[in-house]
Structure to design on (573 residues):
């Protein structure tokens, strides 16, 4: 090899590739943990530090750990799963590209179960086990302890990683005086999935609930991600000596944990004060085999979650806890995922709710699916011209600094799970909105590796879940049912570019006639995700006050829109 050839190899990184081509990993689980074969996804993680554990370091941040993934079927104890340069990874696509050095390695087996669905498809998916679809903590998942290794340049190395640990079960939350928990088996979802499926909720009871047995209450659904328990409510104040050295980079705030604890106690004091309206606030548990949340709509891939929540879970809650049980006395709000759900519930069940407050909603128009127009763009990852391809950004801060690209986020998901099984954001949108593919899994909206958009799938999304398109298409009949009910809030520098779709929605709503929408759309100046409508306070405070910030608007809506003879007094003690 002459000097020029060596120089060219170094310039193009080929020498490093050649040196690393000899490194492989062999992963297995021990028969002390499981004696039967397992299906699932084996994940191999390399990190530069052992704290937190490597599995906790995988993210969209530039500091992310390196991860690789392989599907396994009927993997037996002690059977080896080999990771070499051919296995797809993130952020480096190949093990051959990982530079020599010292690392901590960890492996995880994310277990799949077999579902025989009503539609005739048999699929293997990670059933939720009480953790809200988190591969890091899912009970029963196997993992190894972090192991320090050294990858040497040019050396032929083979590392063995044994998954001899198992995640423990997660205890059920306990009832308190104010917070009650409910869990029901859903007939609709059980029929769809071919096995028992459950819905749950955490219910915050009003002060005086037991002392006023004659009272019936309005109900608010606080939509959002999987809640382990009712969050943001505490009967006790934070300890005076609570540590305040923690620092939240996003908000540039120190001592945020104590601030969060104080806000939770302040909410309790407001909730039990003399003049606070008495009502039920509900957080729903509807984790499923694809995500920590179903998006509260009916879906070909997830099943009839919208109807199950609306016609099974809510009536049971209102029966047990004396809800009024009529549309004029129901409201919904939430942010991000919960913001989309709040608006979608109002659109798909317009007579069942009297108002929605949607903060920083997930894309409510697929013409602005973050930074992609699904109906006009050909590729989700790149803006393409005749001589160059420019990557599309995936996340930013309020100054516009890009954290990652769309391609990087989606490749991370692809490593975590094929067939929309990553349990993460783009995959759940795909699982909720797409038709079922020929293999029984969601039909991809785009090629997960290349970003090429499927126009047929995009057309299906448009007709079934594009909220702006549906409102435009059906305004003649839908408009009168949602007039005065839709309130949308978003920061104009949302980290995920969610404000782009809100702009399009606002343009349509402002020109509506017969009837006019009579609602509200507002933006936070330079505000990031998830701005929720209060311009007088920083968002690191307002994001903790969802359960109080819309109360005045809810009361005004009840006063302005209720049927004759409605109960407006029993709950105002």
């Amino acid at each position: 090899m002459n000097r020029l050839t060596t120089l060219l190899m170094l310039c193009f990184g080929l020498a490093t590739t050649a040196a690393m081509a000899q490194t492989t990993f062999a992963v297995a689980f021990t028969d002390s943990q499981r004696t039967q074969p397992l299906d699932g996804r084996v994940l191999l993680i390399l990190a530069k530090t052992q704290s937190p554990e490597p599995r906790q370091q995988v993210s969209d941040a530039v500091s992310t750990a390196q991860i690789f993934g392989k599907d396994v079927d009927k993997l037996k104890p002690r059977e080896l799963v080999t990771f070499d340069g051919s296995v797809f990874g993130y952020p480096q696509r190949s093990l051959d590209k990982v530079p020599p050095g010292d690392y901590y390695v960890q492996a995880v087996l994310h277990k799949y179960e077999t579902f025989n669905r009503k539609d005739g498809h048999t699929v293997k998916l990670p059933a939720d086990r009480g953790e809200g679809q988190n591969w890091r903590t899912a009970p029963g998942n196997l993992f190894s302890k972090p192991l320090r290794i050294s990858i040497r340049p040019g050396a032929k190395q083979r590392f063995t990683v044994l998954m001899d640990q198992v995640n423990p079960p997660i205890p059920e939350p306990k009832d308190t005086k104010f917070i009650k928990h409910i869990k029901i088996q859903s007939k609709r979802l059980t029929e769809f999935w071919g096995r028992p499926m459950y819905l749950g909720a955490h219910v915050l009871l009003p002060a005086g609930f037991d002392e006023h047995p004659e009272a019936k209450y309005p109900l608010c659904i606080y939509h959002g991600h999987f809640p382990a328990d009712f969050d943001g409510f505490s009967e006790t104040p934070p300890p005076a000596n609570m540590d305040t050295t923690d620092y939240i980079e996003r908000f540039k705030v120190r001592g945020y944990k104590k601030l969060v604890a104080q806000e939770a106690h302040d909410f309790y004091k407001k909730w039990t004060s003399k003049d606070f309206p008495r009502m039920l606030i509900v957080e729903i548990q509807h984790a499923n085999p694809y995500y920590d949340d179903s998006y509260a709509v009916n879906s070909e891939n997830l099943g009839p979650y919208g109807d199950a929540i609306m016609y099974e879970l809510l009536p049971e809650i209102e029966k047990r806890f004396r809800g009024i049980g009529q549309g004029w006395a129901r409201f919904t709000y939430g942010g991000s995922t919960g913001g989309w759900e709040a608006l979608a519930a109002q659109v798909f069940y317009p007579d069942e709710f009297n108002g929605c407050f949607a903060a920083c909603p997930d894309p409510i128009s697929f013409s602005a699916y973050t930074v992609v127009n699904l109906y006009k763009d050909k590729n989700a990852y790149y803006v393409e011209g005749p001589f160059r391809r420019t990557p599309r950004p995936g996340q930013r801060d309020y100054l516009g600094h890009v954290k990652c690209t769309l391609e990087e986020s989606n490749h991370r998901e692809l490593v975590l799970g094929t067939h929309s099984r990553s349990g993460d954001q783009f995959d759940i949108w795909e699982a909720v909105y797409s038709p079922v593919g020929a293999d029984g899994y969601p039909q991809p909206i785009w090629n997960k590796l290349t970003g090429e958009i499927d126009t047929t799938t995009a057309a299906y999304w448009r007709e079934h879940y594009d909220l702006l398109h549906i409102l435009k298409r059906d305004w003649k009949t839908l408009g009168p049912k949602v007039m005065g009910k839709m309130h949308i809030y978003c920061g104009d520098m949302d980290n995920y570019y969610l404000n782009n779709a809100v702009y399009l929605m606002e343009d349509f709503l402002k020109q509506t006639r017969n009837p006019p929408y009579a609602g509200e759309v507002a933006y936070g100046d330079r505000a990031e995700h998830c701005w929720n409508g209060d311009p007088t306070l920083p968002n690191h405070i307002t994001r903790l006050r969802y359960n109080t910030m819309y109360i005045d608007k809810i009361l005004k809506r009840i006063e302005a829109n209720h049927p004759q003879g409605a109960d407006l007094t029993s709950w105002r003690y």
